[in-house]
Design a protein that fits this description.
This protein has one domain: ABC transporter involved in vitamin B12 uptake, BtuC (Orthogonal Bundle). It has 15 helices and two strands. The chain has a two-stranded antiparallel ribbon. It is globular, with a radius of gyration of 21 Å.
Length: 325
């Protein structure tokens, strides 16, 4: 705790960031449920779910450089936990169970795979979602003789408030971890893993723990958002979109940046929702737009803005030197 105080809370920028997060979330908590339509809280909850998944992905992959495609697996685990136990336990209990199980699965997967480097880890995490999809299909077809499950639903406002809490906790936790020793170790691994090992960082343990931590909130989000659907099956729960979308959102916003996942998730979801309503060819148009954005802004929105700011400062310095000469 002392480490967190000295590296995070005692810095001015950290206090400003924390205060900004508190103000924004307090405004959302009071304004959205009381001054908007009945669908708006659910719409905001979906946006925040994308923010949480993007933040979680960026926390591990954005810092370590290990590209994970397992988000869909952890999201689906949460959905099935809620479907199985949502009528027996309160929602917050099933969310907690989902987070713990997602953490455990992430830890086991990390122990097995994070000794690998590069594309091998990405392939394994990609296969994890596919494996769980096919396993659930096989299990339900052979043992339960069912396809999918009916889910206990809750109202949109309840989903919104729970999602607001998850998003707030995740953002604050990432702010802390980024400045704590653990976050610095993870960043060192991403910059040069061999050098990190030479200076005494236990790279495998750090990667495994970070991967497991990033899985926990995704499991909780899956359990919560499951209550908005009313029905799930293996294809709904373990869909590859949940694995690929966080990657695209973070790249779009700015990989490795603090606010990139938020901007990427908000713009991504709003654009997706609009196109779904506007045209039956939304996937084609959406794909073209995303490819164009990545080509135009390879560093993402935040990276592009920062590069422009650096270039502008350099131009001013050059003009100043030229003028003095």
């Amino acid at each position: 705790m002392e480490l967190i105080k000295t590296t995070f809370w005692n810095t001015r920028s950290a206090k400003i960031q924390s205060l900004a997060v508190i103000i924004v979330f307090a405004f959302m908590a009071f304004y959205i449920p009381n001054n908007t339509g009945s669908y708006t809280p659910l719409f905001a909850a979906y946006i925040m779910s994308y923010v949480v998944m993007s933040f979680s992905w960026n926390f591990f992959s954005g810092k370590s450089g290990y590209i994970s495609l397992a988000t869909g697996a952890f999201y689906g685990i949460g959905m099935y936990i809620q479907a199985l136990y949502g009528r027996q336990f309160p929602l917050y209990v099933t969310m907690l169970i989902s987070a713990v199980i997602a953490f455990g699965v992430g830890y086991i997967v990390g122990v097995v795979t994070l000794r690998l480097r590069g594309i091998y880890f990405t392939i394994f995490t990609f296969g994890l979602t596919l494996f769980l999809n096919k396993f659930v299909h096989w299990y339900e077809g052979l043992f339960t003789r069912t396809k999918g499950r009916i889910v206990k639903t809750v109202d949109n406002t309840t989903i919104f408030y729970y999602m607001l809490i998850i998003a707030f906790v995740v953002i604050i936790a990432v702010l802390i971890f980024n400045k704590a020793r653990f976050g610095l170790k993870l960043k060192a691994i991403g910059q040069n893993e061999d050098s990190a090992q030479h200076i005494g960082v236990n790279t495998t343990r750090t990667k495994v723990l970070a991967f497991a931590i990033s899985a926990a909130p995704v499991g909780a989000v899956g359990a919560l958002m499951c209550t908005a659907t009313g029905y799930i099956d293996a294809d709904v729960a373990f869909k590859m979109n949940a694995s690929f979308f966080p990657v695209l959102m973070v790249i779009f916003g700015g990989i490795g940046t603090l606010y990139g996942p938020i901007i990427g998730a908000v713009v991504f979801y709003v654009l997706q929702d609009y196109l779904i309503r506007a045209t039956p060819f939304y996937m084609i148009i959406f794909g073209i737009i995303m490819v164009a954005i990545v080509l135009i802004m390879p560093k993402g929105i935040i990276g592009t803005v920062e590069s422009a700011a650096v270039k502008r400062r350099a131009d001013k310095e050059r003009e100043k030197v030229t003028g003095d000469a």
